[in-house]
Design goal:
homodimer; 9 helices; DNA-binding; transcription (chains A, B); Homeodomain-like_sf (chains A, B); DNA-binding (chains A, B); Tet_transcr_reg_TetR-rel_C_sf (chains A, B)
DNA sequence: GTCTATACAGCGATAGAC
DNA sequence: GTCTATCGCTGTATAGAC
């Protein structure tokens, strides 16, 4: 079902790349028209709210992806080990193919934070909640998400892409060990 | 020794706050003049290279602080436990009083990353090296710095300042436990 | 739906008086 | 060293033809 006319969904994917490369403030409409191939007319047709509208559409799309591919598997049935494995696989695949940048984290650090505060907070708190559901351990959830996010920063800062999967793998085995210990306590308690 | 005329060092401190609040792209010269109380004339007198020069001065100042208060204690004499404790105390104090933002991390995520790539990489690799010196464990070093940086993001994203010291405290006890286990292996090896 | 032309505010930076 | 005035450019956003 090929289409001649552009679709909003296609534009959102291209926009995600641009925002990942340049951040919110650093992304100009000129860069967007170059990346998407759409003129300003088309862009404002799809996103009447302008640049903020475009960014919001991207965050929504990413949020939906995580809800579907990361949070839901964490809340599914099955042993914690398996649920955690599903999460780590999805997350590692996702960031490896997206320039090792988490848009929510990037937006949380800039002045655009206030503008998107609600959706940023929702992304992370949903993630923490789902991890807590899977492991029964809120602190473990926070440690795990923090390690993953920090590993993304380190990988980017040191220009060492391999650092992310390596750090994520250790976080995974630590999380699985602790979840197992919690499910089957060694002695009493 | 009071002075009437402004000093570059004072300006750098004020600039740090501005860049932390707005990021690099989001910091305008107008915001800088408001925050520092200096006109453009004075700013360009102190920082002939303009905005990039100002940001670089801030990064240098922060880098020096970490070198002195964080990395050196990690390389000092004494048991690993003590060196790690010194690092965590310094880091927690630092970020608690500075809006829970690491400028190097913030700059690493935006489009200004390329401009400051060298100094950003130096900051993190020095930190990792110093931690490896203290613990003898490169992976532990990466996990620790990643957890701290991720905790900063989470605290900011969730607007929950307490999350940072709580997560840092767990990272500290984990690091000390692992460093101890490495220094005094339980059995053979 | 897509284009070109344009409005107009704000940007970083500079000049020159004091 | 600090100020004010101003430059040239780019930013987002809009208007209107097609």
């Amino acid at each position: 079902m090929a289409r001649v006319q552009a679709e909003r969904a296609d534009a959102v994917l291209a926009l995600a790349t641009t925002f990942r490369l340049h951040g919110y403030e650093g992304t100009s409409l000129t860069a967007i028209t170059a990346q998407t191939g759409l003129g300003k007319g088309s862009l404002y047709h799809f996103f009447p709210g302008g640049k903020e509208d475009m960014a919001r559409a991207v965050l929504d799309e990413v949020g939906d992806w995580f809800r579907r591919e990361v949070y839901e598997p964490l809340r599914a049935d099955g042993p914690a080990d398996q649920r955690l494995a599903a999460m780590f696989t999805a997350v590692e695949t996702y960031f490896a193919s997206r320039h090792l940048v988490c848009l929510f984290a990037a937006f949380a650090l800039g002045q655009e934070r206030d503008r998107f505060a609600a959706v940023i907070a929702a992304y992370f708190s949903e993630w923490l909640d789902a991890l807590e559901t899977a492991t029964g351990d809120r602190e473990l959830a926070a440690d795990t998400v923090a390690t993953l996010q920090g590993a993304l920063i380190l990988a980017r800062a040191l220009n060492d892409p391999a650092l992310f999967p390596a750090t994520a793998a250790r976080a995974q085995s630590r999380a699985q060990t602790r979840a197992r210990a919690r499910a089957h306590p060694p002695l009493s308690s």
